[in-house]
């Protein structure tokens, strides 16, 4: 850091600059086998990473010791995804060693930025759900909550997105190609997991509920862990990631000897495929059998590890729910419920009722969706084959559960059919969300509207049966990564204004900035910060797309996975409308805008991949039009990920949160953007509602149908009527249909037009007029610089609620009932 102000006292484990430099040189020599003179870039990066990491290891050891001593209740967070973001800067910040690195790097003639180029982000997640897991773990460590995250160490993370002729192409994300300096293998804790095979009755069990499973295939789970440091505290928790390895017998030496090389390693390949790739879709199932194997692999390894840890300090099973709370991040890890039942009943020989009581008190479930197609189900046929014992257990759980239902609603067969864990028609499938609710103590939605709609629609029968099970815990984001690391300039300005860095762990203190929203000098500095961030973004845009954009234009961003319900196509209709207006009236005085899209589409999601082509085609047409491009630029930044988010978000003026109301569970991008002073244009959906409540209606651009109106309209909706009635809408749709963006080819984007005029599933045409008018109001507001900046300041000042620290506190109070354990300071 180059600031001359005395820095606030930082709890640092850095020691002295001299010691840090010594360690660097020694690590370079002993870890990389090289010297300063001959070190390569990767050598430099790796050495720096290890030197910083080593400063966390002492903290981790003390955390583990404190946890062992206290024998507290632990939170075990089970998630198929973690979208951690880059580690180097974070760990420099959390250890207070960034101050050393600058001068040392300068001495050596490299910059921190050059070294950071080698810091690869582990892309072990798709989007919001995985990023939430990372934010919650950051906050748990920061709040000294004893916690372990469990996940899969995918060999290939979320694909890298590139464009060829405007179309998305997916490249594998070989994120460990140069090694991952941030993880520690823990081979002693490996586990063995079975699949397939058969079950038989346990002869000594008259109830028939205990059985013995003999798997036909076994796979080893090799754990490694990544450190999850807290900010401003010595606590360092871990995420334990499992990688699949073939069991030792899998290598067929005799076949190899006989020259059958491929056959000799067949079993190895099959076993190791389990953790090979992250499924690039968080809402529909793919590669079914392998995906289910992944899910079971994760929970089987993790539960064995949780039990191993429990038994280090506890005996018997009575205390299990008092010491272990397991949070299921969506339905992906829900098989953990059946696996714990299997372990307790079959392996540890507990009576069914006791096992069920323990299980139910141990688990909690976070639901992340409202879309019916995103509610996971698995075919009974597949489950019976892959996990025969678990299927039996599901039947038993369902049997006892339906008895309970029958007692509550005598004779109501329809109710039983709706509540059942098994769906009967059109084929027998297991409803994972139902299993999750039945097997958990608490079920939570992720924003107020989402929780309400869950209880009224998707999980209505359950909410009636067990109203006390349902909770809301509105999502949050970590201000360390999404303000302090992403936006150092703004952080410095905030710290200067508020007097110290306390806001970083008590984000509601940002409300003290509200007073500054009327201070012209402060507004000027705020604008200057935003402008410098926009200059940085401009450089990144130019480097990755070649498009030159004006840092003074309104920076209008829509960054999120491409999905129909999020309505990138509505944004595109607005862009095309601006394009049409400028073509018609070249002299018009339009507010200059840069419209920035970022996001990947699932490789099999053809409608969204076509939309990506259309976005790129519109961008090309707009950016090369001599008249239009003076006022408007459109960019689809390739490969949106956490690192890109950290550059885009600080530069954003306008945050697009335009999903059809009632479809977005919460959103967290909306929170990151508001905290960085972007003003939201959005619908009454997900956490947008809570953002608007806090920033004030006058500082939020609201448009469109609400959730109820959307449901009502859907019943008799005719998109064509909107198209016929609104000349600007018609012109925008016609422009796509005419081939203007496809060099005259009318067929290429015809499916997009057909989807809009046919069913328009997400009512984009119905919301179009309100949206365009709202965008015109945005432009008017933008022209008044002080008014806009005031709105921007108030957005940041009033969104401190959306810190994931607050989210974790709510989980602790409402659901986990865990207490912090303090770790001895450095
Ligand atoms: C925050 C974040 C998301 C979630 O964005 P939404 O707008 O809430 O869907 C997705 N991807 C990345 C990389 C993020 O950082």
UniProtKB/TrEMBL annotation:
Sites of N6-(pyridoxal phosphate)lysine modification: 672
Molecular functions (GO terms): glycogen phosphorylase activity; pyridoxal phosphate binding
Reaction(s) this enzyme catalyzes, per UniProt: [(1->4)-alpha-D-glucosyl](n) + phosphate = [(1->4)-alpha-D-glucosyl](n-1) + alpha-D-glucose 1-phosphate
This enzyme's EC code(s): 2.4.1.1
GO cellular component: cytoplasm
Similarity remark: Belongs to the glycogen phosphorylase family.
Name of the protein this chain belongs to: Alpha-1,4 glucan phosphorylase
GO biological process, one term: glycogen catabolic process
Protein's job: Allosteric enzyme that catalyzes the rate-limiting step in glycogen catabolism, the phosphorolytic cleavage of glycogen to produce glucose-1-phosphate, and plays a central role in maintaining cellular and organismal glucose homeostasis. Phosphorylase is an important allosteric enzyme in carbohydrate metabolism. Enzymes from different sources differ in their regulatory mechanisms and in their natural substrates. However, all known phosphorylases share catalytic and structural properties.
Cofactor(s) needed by this chain: pyridoxal 5'-phosphate
Keyword tags: Carbohydrate metabolism, Glycogen metabolism, Glycosyltransferase, Phosphoprotein, Pyridoxal phosphate, Transferase
Keyword flag Transferase: yes
Keyword Repeat: no
């Amino acid at each position: 850091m180059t600031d001359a102000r005395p820095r606030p006292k930082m709890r640092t484990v850095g020691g002295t600059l001299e010691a840090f430099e010594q360690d660097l040189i020694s690590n370079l020599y002993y870890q990389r086998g090289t010297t300063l003179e001959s070190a390569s870039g990767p050598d430099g990066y790796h050495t720096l990473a290890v030197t910083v990491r080593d400063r966390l290891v002492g903290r981790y050891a003390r955390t583990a010791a404190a946890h062992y001593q206290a024998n507290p209740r632990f939170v075990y967070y089970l998630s198929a995804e973690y979208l951690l973001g880059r580690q180097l800067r974070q760990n420099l910040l959390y250890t207070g060693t960034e101050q050393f690195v600058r001068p040392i790097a300068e001495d050596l003639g490299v910059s921190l930025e050059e070294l950071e180029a080698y810091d690869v982000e582990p892309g072990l997640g798709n989007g919001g759900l995985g990023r939430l897991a990372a934010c919650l773990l950051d906050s748990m460590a920061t709040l000294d909550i004893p916690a372990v995250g469990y996940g899969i160490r995918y060999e290939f993370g979320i694909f890298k997105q590139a464009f060829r002729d405007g179309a998305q192409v997916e490249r594998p994300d070989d994120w460990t190609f140069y090694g991952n300096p941030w993880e520690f293998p823990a081979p002693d804790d490996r586990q063995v997991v079975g699949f397939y095979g058969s079950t038989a009755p346990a002869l000594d069990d008259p109830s028939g509920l205990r059985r013995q499973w003999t798997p036909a295939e076994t796979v080893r789970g090799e754990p490694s862990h990544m450190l999850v440091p807290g900010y401003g505290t010595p606590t360092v928790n871990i995420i334990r990631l499992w990688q699949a390895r073939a069991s030792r017998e899998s290598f067929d030496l005799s076949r190899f000897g006989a020259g059958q090389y491929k056959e000799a390693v067949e079993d190895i390949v099959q076993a190791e495929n389990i953790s090979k790739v992250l499924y690039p879709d968080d809402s529909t199932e793919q590669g079914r059998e392998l995906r289910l194997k992944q899910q079971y692999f994760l929970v089987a390894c993790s539960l064995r590890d949780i039990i191993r840890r429990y038994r280090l300090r506890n005996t018997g099973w009575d205390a299990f729910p008092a010491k272990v709370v397991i949070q299921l991040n969506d339905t992906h890890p829900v098989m953990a419920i059946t696996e714990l039942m299997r372990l307790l009943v079959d392996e540890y020989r507990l009576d069914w009722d006791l096992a069920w009581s323990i299980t139910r008190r141990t688990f909690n479930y976070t639901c992340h969706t409202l879309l019916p197609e995103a509610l996971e189900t698995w075919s009974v046929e597949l489950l019976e084959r892959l996990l025969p014992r678990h299927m039996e257990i599901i039947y038993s759980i369902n049997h006892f559960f339906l008895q309970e239902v029958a007692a509550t609603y005598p004779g109501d067969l329809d109710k039983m059919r709706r509540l059942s864990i098994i769906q009967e028609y059109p084929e027998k499938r297991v409803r994972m969300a139902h299993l999750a609710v039945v097997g958990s103590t608490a079920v939570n939605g992720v924003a107020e509207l989402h929780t309400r709609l869950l209880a009224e629609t998707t999980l209505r029968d359950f909410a009636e049966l067990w109203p006390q099970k349902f909770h809301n815990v509105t999502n949050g984001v970590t201000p360390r990564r999404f303000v302090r690391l992403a936006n150092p300039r703004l952080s410095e300005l905030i710290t200067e204004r508020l007097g110290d860095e306390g806001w970083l762990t008590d984000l509601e203190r940002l409300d003290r900035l509200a007073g500054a929203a009327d201070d012209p000098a402060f507004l000027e500095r705020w604008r200057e910060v935003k402008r410098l961030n926009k200059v940085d973004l401009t450089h990144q845009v130019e480097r990755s797309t070649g498009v030159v954009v004006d840092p003074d234009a309104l920076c209008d961003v829509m960054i999120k996975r491409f999905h129909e319900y999020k309505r990138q196509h509505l944004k595109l209709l607005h862009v095309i409308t601006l394009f049409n207006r400028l073509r018609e009236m070249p002299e018009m005085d339009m507010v200059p805008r840069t419209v920035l899209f970022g996001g990947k589409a699932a490789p099999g999601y053809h409608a969204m991949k076509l939309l990506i082509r259309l976005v790129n085609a519109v961008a090309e047409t707009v950016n090369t039009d001599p008249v239009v491009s003076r006022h408007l630029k459109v960019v689809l930044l390739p490969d949106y990920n956490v690192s890109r988010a950290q550059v885009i978000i600080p530069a954003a003026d306008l945050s697009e949160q335009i999903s059809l109301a009632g479809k977005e569970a919460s959103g967290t991008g909306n929170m990151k953007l508001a905290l960085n002073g972007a003003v939201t244009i959005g619908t009454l959906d997900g956490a947008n509602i809570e953002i608007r409540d806090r920033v004030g209606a006058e500082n939020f651009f609201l448009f469109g149908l609400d959730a109820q109106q959307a449901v009502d309209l859907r019943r008799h909706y005719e998109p064509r009527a909107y198209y016929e009635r609104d000349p600007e809408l018609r012109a925008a749709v016609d422009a796509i249909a005419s081939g203007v963006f496809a060099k005259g080819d009318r067929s290429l984007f015809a499916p997009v037009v057909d989807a809009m005029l046919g069913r328009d599933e997400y009512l984009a045409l119905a919301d179009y007029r309100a949206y365009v008018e709202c965008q015109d109001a945005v432009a008017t507001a933008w022209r008044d610089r002080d008014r806009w900046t005031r709105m921007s300041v108030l957005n940041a000042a009033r969104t401190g609620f959306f810190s994931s620290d607050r989210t974790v506190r709510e989980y602790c109070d409402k659901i986990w009932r865990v207490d912090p354990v303090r770790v001895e300071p450095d």
